[in-house]
Amino acid sequence: MHKRLLSFIFSVFAMLLIACDTDNSAKPAPSYLHIDNVGLYPGPCPGINPTSISGVAVYAGKRGSSVPLLGIWALPADIPILEEDSTIITVHGLVFGNGVRSQLLYYSFFDRADTVIKLKPGQVINYNPVVKYTTGLQLPRPLEEDFESPEMVFEKTDSSKWGITKVGKSSQYSFNDCGQYTGLMTATGKDGSIMEFRSKTYLSLPTNNTDIVIEFDYNTSTELAVRMDVFDGTTPINGNLGDYSLIPTNGAWKKGVMLFSDEVFLNKTRKFKLKFRGFNDNDETEYIAIDNIRLSTFKQ
Q1: Which residue, 9, 115, 108, is CA-closest to 52?
Q2: Theoretical Cys-Cys bridge with 57: which of 45, 92, 95, 194, CB 3.0 to 4.6 Å?
Q3: pLDDT in tens, 45-64
Q4: What is the DSSP string of 178-228?
Q5: Is 249 helix (H, G, I), strand (E, B) or coil?
Q6: Distance in angstroms (rounded) separating the CA atoms of residues 241 and 274
Q7: Which of 258, 267, 273 is nearest to 207 (CA)?
Q8: pTM summary value
């Protein structure tokens, strides 16, 4: 696990810390900070964009002293704060790592958000932090696909009967962002159950243990596996590198964040292709809708 990108792993269950006290009368009434989402500026679309942030670590305190960690929460969240008057609020964005919704990870691509809020007991304050990319951060991207260019970065594999296409805003599968197109693979019936597409060209990836992160927006009716195909020259030698699985979202758009640094480091003499895979095991239509696929390397 790489300290530069993923500083800590938190279990969502660790957020459920309940202090038991039979005498509640002496406790001061908290104010509440309500956070729906975390925005990114500047983002790929004009203005403030939604991010892949799924949770927050929140710190609150006074000037001239250390600002303590209050805890971590999945979003949306209502955060109780016992401080009063002008209070420093610091928010770090967290993401669900490698498709595992019980793990919230610090995400070092984004700076923290700092603000000062005047708090009153019992008050509920709506606050949606806005973050920027870490100062001086370089994000080399060996692969990027938003499906806006005429030529797609991905193609179906020989194992898949079904091809990947682009759909516009009129499609029920379209992702609601500033782009005009979304990638889509659909499969009908049991004839050809494998739904699979991968990058057309070999990826040039660092093999010096640099952090390698894959991000994408997805909406799928089938379990979605994210893998790397490994090649020795042009000969495939491993088609299941990483093999992270995401559960069906059934109409809802989610953000996937995967870390492939260790897998690539252990295959440093090889070449790679990024692959997505689903299945159609019934007589109904299954689909994989995907957008804003980015493979980034963390380099300062």
Answers
A1: 108
A2: 92
A3: 777 777 778 889 999 999 87
A4: S-S-EEEEEEESSSS-EEEEEESS-B----SS-EEEEEEEEEESS-EEEEE
A5: coil
A6: 10
A7: 267
A8: 0.73
